[in-house]
Please model this.
Amino acid sequence: SQEKYETIMSKNNDGTAAVRKGNHLLPLMYSTTEEVENHLNLIKPNSCSQSDHDRRNPTSDEQRTFHESYQPPHLFLHFDVNETILLGDPAGNDTVRECLNKIIAKSAFVSTISGASNDEKVDDTSAPTFRRSPSSGNITENSTHSFRPTHWWNGLPLDPSSVEDDTVTNVPPPPLYTGWTRPTNTCPYYRTFYKSQAKEFTETEHGNIYRPLYDRFCDILGLVHNDSQHDFEEDCGKGKRRNDEGMKIFDNFLPAFFHTLQYYFPSKLLTSTSAFTTIDAHDESINTDRKFRNILPKPTKVTLILRTFGHDLPLVAMAISEFAKGNHPLFPEYRNDDLILTENDLYCSDWRRACNDNGVIDGRDNPNRNASDDAKCSEWIYELHPYYSIHTRNETSHEGNQRQYKDKAADHSGDEEVLNFLQSKTVLGIQDHYPFWKSWNHAPWAGKPVWACIGFNNCHCHHHHILLDDNIHNDPNDGAGGIRTPIELRGRGDGEKSISGYQSLFGKEALEMHGKHLIRVPTVKPLMEEDWFIRQIEEARWNLLRGETKIKTSAGETDRKE
Model:
């Protein structure tokens, strides 16, 4: 990613590396539990889960064979908005600066063993048993939200005043953690008793150690460190604003998002030059074998779908359209009319329920419903309505004027209709149904669905949907990303798998879709690394390809046995 500061690597007292910005230390970022264990010297620092053989370059014959045989599926990139590609949430009353503090607090991990430090050997069996404190809903007495930590995950005390000498002030901040699997006996600062301080995290006694990172983020976004927050909500309502520095509409968007658009939707202006970085086939940060990773052909068709629970679609649509016209100051030579959105490209989603022979039942009118019973006896139908048939142009709350749904027929109803419509588009925006998701205690299936149709015999089996969202968690009962999969049509007897309908995945099956159809976005990563979205998407494409290969191999073996 672009560096605005010349950084140097230094060695701390414990031998770990630290990144310096001037005289201030920035934290490292770990994304695997192995890196955490290495840091704590629990395993050999030079150990590796892969052999050099796994990382060998493919031969020219292998590359040619692969390119001739592989046809990339139609790629659908579903991007969440708030704290994924845009900072500042007027619906949640969060300013940009508050969001910056929150995203750091979400990746700053503490120890759940009270009083533990690196110098003290603590019996893990004596540690309290905590369950993950969900982002919303279903909080129990065993959740970490009531826990008051005393140390960071690496043993440094949260309260620097508890140390008499200057050992705390002269060491770098504890590394941030952005991985999918949480390290043992740890949790994010954001999920503890101190969550109420998250919006001012780097201004508090606990989080001030991360203040240099906060300042770095301000620099990346072009914010003056001590200026007042510009009125983001005003921009949402009135649209674009200009000043001498260019278009204000791009303020607070992550530059990594526009780099991603440029990669998957190349400029159609012949004089434009590529500003993105080529993906390294042997990037050590990606911890799986990559035999053909560097030669995975680009998809022949890509669709961009904006997904949000808030009322920011008009603002985001305007920003992308201005980017497509070449008005982004960082991409002045970019042109691609395919990414220009109009009001007709914005939609609101809804869910309705059909139950047996009793007709259509509006799920919002049944407060006594049970998730497991509904999964067995009824089908939830996903629908799309035109955005401005539901909302007026000055709504700024999550709830909105949702009652209008009952009197309006959907433009696209049911999975097949919705998928056919998405297939015909290059870009569109969807405001998903926040009240419905909230009524189901923020269960993933009720949030923002994407589709996984691998191995089925229909026109959508060659689709690859990926949702990138900061609100995806390693928790089957909490998160914004849901998976819809086909129901197999029985009784054909010809060996082909055809579809009779769709259903939502639950539990472990849904979690297994992370890395293929769901990508959790720890916002600190794309803020620091402009190619982070691209690398995660390419990783998901490769994971899907490996899954398809396994399915085909298994089917071939079955056929031979029969």
About this structure: The CA atoms of residues 68 and 233 lie 50 Å apart. The two ends are 53 Å apart (CA to CA).
